[in-house]
Amino acid sequence: MASTATTPPPSLVVKDAREKLSLFERLKKGDEATFLVTFASALSIIVVTCLLVQHLWIDSVLSRHAFGWKFLHTSTWDPVADQYGALPFIYGTVVTSFLALLLAVPVGIGAAIFLAELAPRRLSNVLTFMIELLAAVPSVIYGLLGIFVLLPILRDYVVPPLQKTLGFLPIFKGAFYGVSYFSAACVLAIMIVPFIVSISREVLLAVPQAQREAMMALGATKWDVTWKSVVPYAQRGMIGSVFLALARALGETMAVTMVIGNVPAIHASLLSPGYTIAAVIANEFTEATGDLYISALIELALVLFAVTMIINAIARLLLLGMKSQETTH
Amino acid sequence: MSRSYPPTYKKVINISMLTLTGLAALLVVSVLLFILGYLVWNGARSLNLNFFTKLPVPAGQEGGGMANAIVGSGKLLLLASAIGIPIGVLGGIYLAEFGKGPFSFAVRYTTDLLNGVPSIVIGIFVYSLIVLPQHHFSTFAGGVALGIMMIPIALRSTDEFLRAVPNTLREGGLALGASKAQTVLTIIIPAAMQGIVTGIMLNLARVAGETAPLLFTALGNQFWSPGWNGPSASLPVVIFNYAISPYEDWHRQAWAAGFVLLMGIFLTNIVARLLVSGRRSPARS
Amino acid sequence: MAATTTLFDMKKLQGARSARFGDPEPEDRVSLPPQFTVRDMSFFYGDFQALHDLNLTLPTKRVTGLIGPSGCGKSTFLRTLNRMYEVVPKARVTGSILLGETDVSEFSPTLLRRRVGMVFQKPSPFPKTIFDNIAYGLRVNNLSKKSELKDKVSECLQRAALWDEVKDKLHESAFSLSGGQQQRLCIARALAVDPDVLLLDEPCSALDPIATAKIEDLIFDLRRSCTIIIVTHNMLQAARISDYVGFFLQGKLIEFDAARKMFQNPSNGLTEDYITGRFG
Hints:
The structure holds three protein chains of three kinds. By secondary structure, chain B is mostly helical. Helix content of chain B is 74%, strand content 0%. Chain B has helices at residues 8-44, 49-53, 67-98, 102-116, 119-134, 139-163, 167-175, 180-208, 212-215, 235-243, 248-277. The longest helix of chain B has 37 residues, at 8-44. By secondary structure, chain C is of the alpha/beta class. In chain C, 40% of the residues lie in helices and 23% in strands. Chain C has eleven helices and ten strands. The two termini of chain C are 19 Å apart. The chains are: A mainly alpha, B mainly alpha, C alpha/beta. The interface between A and B is large, with 92 and 96 residues.
């Protein structure tokens, strides 16, 4: 019995009996170096963002100290007298963005519901592809089309009937010269619709099939299933998409400044020209002389940063809430 | 039991909502087609050889072009890629392969934050960071601004595509005695490469059209801008300036430039999305 | 009554093994020092204890099968042998596991895994060519000069009984192979670095019976040049190919013995119950 195994065959000789790699070999394996390089890159993002906040804060100090919180509710914007108040721009930004949402949300959500739930799959994929292309159109091209196409259309075909029917309302009073809050809101609406469609569609598609099947088993129509079962389940996410669209609208610069008229005044009528935060920075920054002027513009940038940060955070919370809702079900 | 369940009114609502939402979708798509059509019609016919080869001439004169803006945009994108892609991709590798815990959370949060910053604010930031100390506008500053905008997208898409690679490949590499770095570099990244490249293409397409960050960094230039230290023309800024000018000829050129820019962006988008379309499962946000 | 009938079938099965693979060799655990010596080993995921105070020795150059119902810890145990559990953040091991005479924790993971290879349940070739898959282990560990690579790759493929099927398409993607071929490719890939031990984690569970048979033949051919430890939930497979068998239940090792004894006359009542199908 024991004689069957006298000398072990060569393959049984233990090879490479050492237990550790040399330092050189470990370096070549690259774990430490790779970790360091990737870690440094990740860290640099935090560094850049902190620098951004720091620069905005420090460079706006003159204006912040001169005006304090009054900056946010004073409406004088007078570079000659060095008096700066942000209210016209805050007003313009809020008005155009919310009006844009009013126009874009029904269309966007409607289209998203159609593409996610009601349309046949192939048609939905093709249309979605095209709508996502729309999201890639740069702002300045929207502005170009806005000036030369949208404004004439509004002036000739939209505003006259609007004034005939609703002209008694203060928001639609006054002469319309093309550039206005209303025009800017229309352009913004077109720009943000693709985002609402795209994200809402994804959120709707992510609703578990079981939700739909439960209602379909009861004999409901497709619309009933969608409206009563899928949409309520997905509503957090869809509201999140609206917030994301809002954040985008607030920060939009080029298209807005090309069609809003760039007048730092507050008017009740949507048909009069106005100004937004992003537009005034774009227009006046390179011509601004005087430290206080520049500082005021940078303070405006700080305000814009803070507002978009908050809106984006809300949007993210809503969308994350959707994800955890999925996993707990 | 009635034979016509669901009741007629429900069927009517079903059809009308189907129509309404379908019209909404159609409306959005038709906007795209309109934009495309209008730019093609208006822009393509304003296109000529001069556009690509000549410098701008004073308003009113014929024969000017945008060669400097085209080259300027090219240089800016080159620098932006050199900054944004390495940092974004390497950061994405960190998050997907090495990161755990609060630091990763902070990086992800900050990336989302940076992604949401309006582009004009980034322009102000780089103005304060580079233009002010240097006392002049420059291609370099413009490239940095665009590069910062590229980072969050590059990071997120790299992170996503790396995490989509199945864990069995990582285990397979480790089980053969490869180090973590070797596994990531020689197995995981090549497996995710198609997605990462697509992400970069889409990223470039987006940044190519950005105007606001360039307004206070690269500014603009009527002439050539050799090197990296002088202000530079770029397609989007020229479109903006020409569009708001009172000159017919400049409007024409703005259309031509818009056409060229949009075509470049669309083609990149289409190619990139077709590359990935086979691979990805229905996307989740 | 039913129990005796099933044991009788197991004897038939052992007979079938003899027909295919020849008579199993007499027990000779003492002739070579054990490959692994496990003493008082416990394994924890965070606070959850997955393995309890394991004590066993795994014999060298033999096939050891690990059986037990789902979730009993046999795969977890396998992964402690080459420290693959370390990719999970909350996993930890107490007690000692010796490879030969050295505790596995004293090895650098890279060197340990060169000596102790692993093949996983789902065939996962790398998204590379067949050639590059095999060559991968050699390249990352700098084990071969470039000129020797071709020979080494063909040698591995021959050892894995795959050479004839792929020799004309070495530079095609590994995904062009069938599931069974991919699994043999993964085995060949693991063999490329000349491991002393091959850990197989349910290698046939995703394969059809023909592919399974081919892999069992392969294991039988490899067993004298390489210690093989195979986790399987297929008891009959364990009976076919193992020299020794360990039976796990709820994180504990219930019995460990020569396969012939385990399947014909197990010492522990629980073992007998599992083998005869009373639970599982």
